[in-house]
């Protein structure tokens, strides 16, 4: 019995570390922005679109996904055009990159909020 008591005294419990909700990294969201934006649009449509009572943060995410997709379409449509100047192409590309990053950050924040809301509190 004395051996067990001694071992218990030697063993100390480490304090539980607070778990940080792990969502996708910002780099991942930027790299896969096209697929993530499509997922957001699909989820919006599957939930009933404008008629569905969606959370406000999802509506903001959906709006940013639409802005990103529209900026991307503008860049792609102007690529082959000889009418648009190089400066205008660069402006469109910069706008597309900015909307991509804004959407990716918004997606990451949304995922972290959702995982925090759904994960058990220990």
Low-confidence stretches: 14-19
Report the oligomer. single chain
Instruction: Kindly report how far apart the N and C termini lie.
Output: 34 Å
Main sheet: strands, sense, barrel: none
Supply Rg.
Answer: 23 Å
Strand content: under 5%
Q: Report the total helices.
A: 5
Q: How helix-rich are the residues, as a percent range?
A: over 70%
Principal-axis shape equals elongated
Order of helices and strands: HHHHH
User: What's the β-strand tally?
Assistant: 0
The chain-level mean pLDDT equals 81
Tally of domains = 1
Can you give keywords for this protein?
single chain; 122 residues; mainly alpha
In words, what does this structure look like?
The protein is built from 5 helices and no strands. The chain is mainly alpha-helical. It has one domain (23-118). The longest helix has 33 residues, at 86-118. Residues 14-19 have low confidence and may be disordered.
Task: Summarize the SSE layout with pairings.
Elements: H1 2-10, H2 26-31, H3 33-46, H4 56-79, H5 86-118
Summarize the structure.
The protein has helices at 2-10, 26-31, 33-46, 56-79, 86-118.
């Amino acid at each position: 019995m004395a051996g067990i008591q001694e071992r218990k005294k030697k063993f100390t419990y480490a304090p539980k570390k607070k778990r940080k909700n792990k969502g996708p990294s910002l780099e991942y969201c930027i790299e896969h922005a096209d697929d993530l934006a499509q997922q957001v649009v699909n989820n919006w449509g599957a939930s009933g679109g404008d008629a569905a009572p969606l959370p406000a943060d999802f509506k903001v995410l959906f709006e940013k996904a639409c802005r990103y997709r529209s900026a991307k379409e503008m860049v792609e449509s102007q690529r082959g055009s000889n009418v648009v100047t190089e400066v205008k192409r660069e402006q469109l590309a910069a706008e597309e990159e900015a909307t991509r990053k804004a959407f990716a950050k918004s997606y990451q924040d949304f995922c972290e909020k959702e995982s925090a809301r759904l994960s058990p509190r220990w």
